Amino acid sequence: MNQNLFNKWLYLFVFVRKTMATAGVPVSFSSSKETTNYAKLCRLLVDVGCYVLRDTFDSIHPPSDLHKNLRTHHSKLQLLQKKRVLNPTQWGNLYPPIRTSVSSKNFDITLLTVLLRNICSLSPPATGWDALPPATDVSTEADIVRVKYFRNTVYAHADKASVDNAKFDGYWHDIKDALVRLGGPVYAVAIDDLKNECMDPVFEEHYRELLKEWKRDDDNTKEKLDEIHWMLEEIMKASTNTPLPKDVDEPTELIGRLRQLYLTREGRHSPFPWCEEFNFDLNDIFTRPTIVRRDKTRRTAAELVTNITAVFKPHRECSKPRTVLIEGERGMGKTTYCQKIAYDWANGQETDPSFPQIKLLFLLKCHDMSGNIWEAIDDQLLPRNIDETAKENFFKYIHANQSQVLLILDGLDEAPSNFTKIFSDLVESRDLPKCNIILTSRQEGSVKISKFCDTLFQMEGFSSENSHHYITHYFKDLEAEGKKLLNGIDQNIELGELIVNPLFTAMLCLVFEDLKGSLPQSKTQLYLEITECILKRFCQKQRLSHNNGILIDVFKEELEQLGRIALEALKRDEMHIEEGEFTGSTRKSPLFEFLSVQSNSSKRRSHTCYRFSHKSFQEFFAGLYLSDHITKGETDFEKLLANERQNLKALEPVLLFTVGILGHNSEKYALSLLKVTIKNANHFKTLDIPTFYLCFALKCIGECSRENSRLRSKMIHLLGTNLELQELIITDNSFPIELFVEALQVNSTLTHLQILVPFLRDHFLVFMANMLQVNKTLTKVVILNFRFFSTHDVQQLSDSLMVNTTLYDLQITGNGWGNNAARILAGYLKKSKTLGVLGLFIGDIGDEGATALAEVLRTNTTLNSLCLAGNPGIGNLGAISLCEALKVNKTLHSLNLSETGISDTSVLSIVEILNTNTSLTALSLSDIKISRHTVKSMAEVLRINSTLKGLDFKGNKVGVGGARLITESLKVNTTLNNLDLSRNNFKASCGRLLSDVLKVNGTLESLSLVNNALGARGTQLLSEGLKVNTSLTHLDLSGNSVDDEGAESIAETIRVHASLTVLQLSGNSIGDSGATSLSKALKVNVSLKNLNLSENSIAGAGTKSIAEALESNASLTTLNLDTNGIGDNGAQSLCEALKKNATLTYLFVSNNNIHSAGARGFAELQQHNNTLKTVFLTKNDTSDFGDFGDQELNEVPLINVSKFPISRDVSLQFSGQRSFDVLVSRDTLMLPPH
User: Fold this and answer.
1) Which H or E run contains 1224?
2) Rounded to an integer, what distance in angstroms lies between the CA atom of residue 783 and that of residue 769?
3) CA dist., res. 298 & res. 320, Å (int)
4) Dihedral (C-alpha) 1025, 1027, 1030, 1032: value to the nearest 10 degrees?
5) Is 0.85 surpassed by the pTM of this model?
6) Are residues 526 and 438 in the same domain?
7) Strands (DSSP E) along 927-974, which ranges?
8) Does a structural domain hold residue 1203?
9) Cβ(1036)–Cβ(1007) below 8 Å
10) What distance in Å separates the CA atoms of residue 446 and residue 63, rounded to the nearest whole number?
11) Alpha-carbon separation of residue 397 from 246, 247, 261, 369 (angstroms)
12) How many domains does the chain have?
């Protein structure tokens, strides 16, 4: 239970007793087992039920965005207020004077129930909100209903206020199951503790009254809701029974003509307009792409779509979706999907039950729109000879029947920029509010629209099975050819990756057929071959000879013009080309073979416009143009990179084609361009994440050397010998890791390499082994991976380590690391003279593997640190073997057995070792099974051990009793410097215990208390000891329910505390008021260097106070304000303050609702601040940040960061399934020093 609830119980207890004593009432209550049973059930439902429902609500509407979500639902909640479903107190809690201060912690259980049913997109169970669901239904909605149902069941005993033991056990079991499913397994222990806890009679009476009050409030709410629902039904009946005006009769003839248009126009699939014979019957060739519904908040995969018409299916975020956004990269099949939906509607095909019953479907191409929606419908779909009266009546019919209309807007990213408002009005229900809408776009083109759509999908192209299906259908009359192509794809990893894209699959089929079974090896070669195919067909049509060499060279002049126009259009972020740009070209020019005419689809365009059939063709011809100019010496590649600094990410495909074409024609130019790229990468050699330039260099090697092994070797050697990086952390699975590892064979600067990628390719360890056999500079290697590594691969790694003389720190994780791997590495350790740190964590090592490693420890004299954390197979047998080894080992300084299967027996053995061992200085025993008796033994050893300096003891839930034992020992301990007691169920009273330690302990330097429940009171108590302590430098109170009062206590402390340098307060609720208190203290504090205030509901006012403090503070170097609500105004305040600040080095403001204006302020700050190195702005909408006119952002590396929830020391936080989500951020803006 949380600390705030405990404080309220204590306050209530004192208040009731004082009131009764004053009134002359005897302070005594009669109580029996049966009445206590009833009171415990009341308490379970009222307290735990409220907390669980609040957690459920917070998971749907995160606290950081709650004020925004309530603003979105204001009209609906206002209706509930007017009908008195919500009382004034509840309304005030929903919309306090300071909107950003709203917190679900102030919502009572009745309000939470109303909100869950009305604004959380939850669908009622099949049995409704008021009937017990079947036992098989364990959905969130069903368990919410169960909480109320069990409340009513328990309340039926209210007259006697007693429940016998048998019924009590049954009720408790059923209620616990529902609450644990809703809130998670963490509640199971707390609920069991409540069941066994004694209750004061005062509390029994209190909880009986609370349950009665909840029942009464809920009954009143239900009556009001029933009244509202009845009124809505009557309104709907009235609207249904009202006949349509005569002037909106169903336009049967027009609907029929629309159907015929779709059957004719969309019935043939023509991926390439330049190849007339390359078209298919849509039904025959259509292959269903992979479509995944994504969670809108974090864009994580939520559900695989199995039917292309199931996109309107209800889900947790929306019970009745109206607006659907389908995102996907270029060529993933979005347009073909839209064609298929329109074609199937015209054909009367059966749809998914969730698909709306529609009478009208409008498929509109966004890039052809030149006016509003009505003009687009007229322009693209209606008959050219339709009269104005018929058109007007048709539009009236659409207005009157919106719920039976489906509007498909294909290609938002290709629409003119001034159309954003038109699309926003549609998805925000300002225009056609009942119309069903499907939108498609590349992700970068729908950033501002996606948050308003009911459902978000990701089109991920073809699965391997579906791409094979497409190829089989393509070659259905040439079965042998199809099988040959499929066999070639299976043997070529790169081609296997390309055919995920449906467009590439189609192109591959075309080229393969044309080349009679010859497969291109690279993307550049593929496009060169496609271009040759197109030019060959052009010559055939024009009856021109095409046997005079390479046709790309024959038509060089025309293609150069096309490439120049393509590049200029790309820089304008356009795909269309006006006819006037083709000076001197006739319609018989081959360049028109690569373009499609756009004039036919729009009646209002008075001139002809052209468009590449796909953006990748535009990029290819732009690359062809640049490669030609570089060869001629007309373009300098180094200057090109500098001049296009702000567009490099967008132009990356063009530059890759450029290098690929040069590599195809001339090794000299390819190597020269690579050298320039490496030179730019070395400008950021102090960064430890891959820059754009490093990634681009590796992609260049991959692109232009697949068909030239000699060039490949030269390019890899050039990269390895010239790269000057010292440390690198790789977290992106798309990073060319194997190429980079190969380059490290000849590199002489990189010392630390961390590869934090969950699924590496098979035999990756072999690449690492080959590199480590010859590399002479790497001292640290970390590999995070969940793919199984074979015994053979592990043996090869071990063999290479035998000859390596520099590696000191090796940490490897993954399911592949079991007992066999541990035995192999144990064999290496017997002979190793260099390895000092070994980490084999989060794997499948058991007692057998641990015992093998223990045997090595008896004789090894170089290993200083051993980490076996996250291996649940290691039990008492393995741990005892390690302890026996430590009796003779004198060199191991650090041992980590956290998250293993050890229990009391093992810990007592470790305690015994600590009584005599004089070498072990760091011990980690987190998240293990441990009893109170063993905690006592562990605490006692801290009294006498004089070597242990670091103890990680988090997640063991020792509670107040354990805290008392540990703190008593710490009062006399004189060696421990670092202590982590996070997640140990510390309550407010533990603040006093810790405070007493800090008053007398003079050696503790770092104390971590993350995710306990100290609250405001516990923080106040802790601060008393901190004020007089002179040794503590690091304090972490993240996730401790510290509010503004707690923040004020901390502020008073740092005013006088002279040693604290790092203060972590992330994930609390200090708000603007708490931020203001801390800011005042920062003005006088001279020691604090690192302050973390992320996830604290700090808005503009709090940020302004922090900014004022930064103007005078001269010690702070790192400030973290991630995930607050500072906005552009707060960002501007910080920028103004930082013009005067001369110490801050790193500023974190990610996920703060900052837009271009705020980002621009940080960019311009470079002119005024010489100390700020990096500003982190991820997860902010700065999509149009690059528009600075003539201003150039000097030394701003373009970095594509894929972030994992992993800290730099590779400490992992896993879910119950031992897996984690990959959070891919957008390009990170980083501002390095001048």
Assistant:
1) strand 1223-1224
2) 13
3) 21
4) 70
5) no
6) no
7) 950-952
8) no
9) yes
10) 25
11) 10, 8, 20, 22
12) 4
Spatial neighbors of 1134 by CB under 8 A, at least 6 apart, are 1103, 1106, 1107, 1110, 1126, 1147, 1149, 1161
**C-beta of residue 1175 within 8 angstroms of C-beta of residue 1231:** yes
The angle that helices 847-857 and 819-831 make with each other, rounded to 10 degrees, is 10
Alpha helices by DSSP H, listed for 74-164, are: 74-82, 88-94, 109-118, 140-155
Judged by DSSP in three states, 94 sits in helix
Residue 996, CA atoms < 13 Å, CB-side half-sphere: 14
Domain-embedded: residue 530: yes
Establish if 15 belongs to a structural domain: yes
Q: Which of 1052, 1146, 1195 is nearest to 1134 (CA)?
A: 1146
Residues 529 and 456 in one domain: no
Are residues 904 and 780 both part of a single domain? yes
Give the DSSP letter of residue 348: T
DSSP per-residue string spanning 1073-1094: HHHHHHHHHHTT--S--EEE--
Tokens at 337, concatenated: 């999907």
Tokens encoding 820: 């066999």
Q: Which of 905, 929, 953 is the last residue of a domain?
A: 929
Question: One-letter amino acid identity for 230?
Answer: W
Distance between start and end Cα atoms, the chain? 51
Q: Check: CB of residue 72 under 8 Å from CB of residue 307.
A: no
Classify residue 604 by its DSSP letter: S
Q: Residues 612, 615, 619, 624: what is their CA dihedral angle, to the nearest 10 degrees? A: -30
Burial of 392 (0-12, 13-18, 19+ CB in 10 A): exposed
* pLDDT value at residue 23: 35
Q: Which residue has the higher pLDDT, 84 or 1114?
A: 1114
Mean pLDDT of 463-484: 81
Any domain includes 678: no
**CB count in 10 Å sphere of residue 695:** 21
3-state helix, strand, coil in the chain (%, to 5): 50, 10, 40
Burial 539-568, CB ≥16 within 10 A → b, else e: beeeeeeeeeeebeebbeebbbbbbbbbbe
Q: How many other C-beta atoms lie within 10 A of the C-beta of residue 301?
A: 12
Which tokens hold the place of 844? 């499948």
Measured between alpha carbons, how far is residue 796 from residues 780, 806, 1006, 1138 in Å?
18, 18, 41, 53
Distances (CA, A) of 139 to 122, 454, 456: 10, 21, 22
Q: What is the DSSP string of 594-655?
A: GEEE-GGG-SS--S-EEEESSHHHHHHHHHHHHHHHHHHTSS-HHHHHHHTGGGHHHHHHHH
State how far the alpha carbon of 212 is from the alpha carbons of 46, 111, 759, in Å.
Answer: 10, 16, 54
Last residue of a domain, one of 875, 898, 929: 929
> Of 582, 624, 290, nearest to 459 (Cα)?
290
Q: Are residues 552 and 448 in the same domain?
A: no
Contact in structure between 172 and 165 (CB atoms under 8 Å): no
Do 656 and 793 fall into the same domain? Answer: no
Closest CA to 953 of 915, 999, 907, 993: 907
Q: What is the DSSP letter of 635?
A: S
Question: Residue 243: is its pLDDT beyond 50?
Answer: no
Does 300 share its domain with 195? no
Structure tokens given for 175:
């209620």
Q: How many residues are listed for the chain in this entry?
A: 1234
Percent residues over pLDDT 70 in the chain: 84
| Residue 329 to residue 341: CA distance in whole angstroms | 19
Give the Cα-Cα-Cα angle 478, 467, 657 (nearest 5 degrees).
100
Whole-number Å distance between alpha carbons of 918 and 945 = 8
Give Cα 431 distance to the centre of its chain.
32
Same domain, 657 and 765: no
Q: What is the mean pLDDT of the chain?
A: 81
Q: Name the residue with higher pLDDT: 1060 or 253.
A: 1060
What is the extent of the structural domain holding 619? Answer: 520-665
Q: Look up residue 1144 and give its two tokens.
A: 């801050």
Note whether 905 and 759 are same-domain residues: yes
How far is residue 479's CA from residue 2's CA, in Å, rounded to a whole number? 68
| Residue 244: pLDDT band with limits 50, 70, 90 | very low
Q: Compute the distance between CA of residue 831 and CA of residue 863 in angstroms, rounded to an integer.
A: 11
